[in-house]
């Protein structure tokens, strides 16, 4: 069914384009939300991604995964959005991240909303590098090339992101512990 919709959309069928949009909207938002600060910003990235995808639909190879092809467009659009707004962000000081221990059972208790909330609280560059490396599977070299810095910076940003997430997790865990004592 998906390939049929894509074929129809390639031929300019407006109904097929709308069905494709609806079919992949939730997926597109889930990817964009990991790279942006707000839902509004994610909506902007998703809509820009759809515009790019539909204008380049003729470049999509029917035999490959449309979802993977579209995910790459969403990620690139998110990075473009970050670059466009980068002048508004404060310069980030990079520190060495120290490893801390944590209770692995407590990690299992995290909800999707809590995880996304912690990710959204990260500075943009840390969130983008974390998503690209840990979730999307990019190498540090690829991340560096995509974002315009050395792969060693990607490693440092990733370590810093993990450190910040550990700190946020510890605070969240302490709040939970205080709530359960009462």
TrEMBL record:
SUPFAM superfamilies: Sigma2 domain of RNA polymerase sigma factors (SSF88946), Sigma3 and sigma4 domains of RNA polymerase sigma factors (SSF88659). Belongs to the sigma-70 factor family. ECF subfamily. Residues 20-87 form the RNA polymerase sigma-70 region domain. This is RNA polymerase sigma factor. InterPro entries: RNA_pol_sigma-70-like, RNA_pol_sigma-70_dom, RNA_pol_sigma70_r2, RNA_pol_sigma70_r4_t2, RNA_pol_sigma_r2, RNA_pol_sigma_r3/r4-like, WH-like_DNA-bd_sf. The keyword DNA-binding applies. Keywords: DNA-binding, Sigma factor, Transcription, Transcription regulation. The keyword rRNA-binding does not apply. Residues 113-165 form the RNA polymerase sigma factor 70 region 4 type domain. It comes from Litoribacter ruber. One of its GO terms (molecular function) is sigma factor activity. GO terms for biological process: DNA-templated transcription initiation.
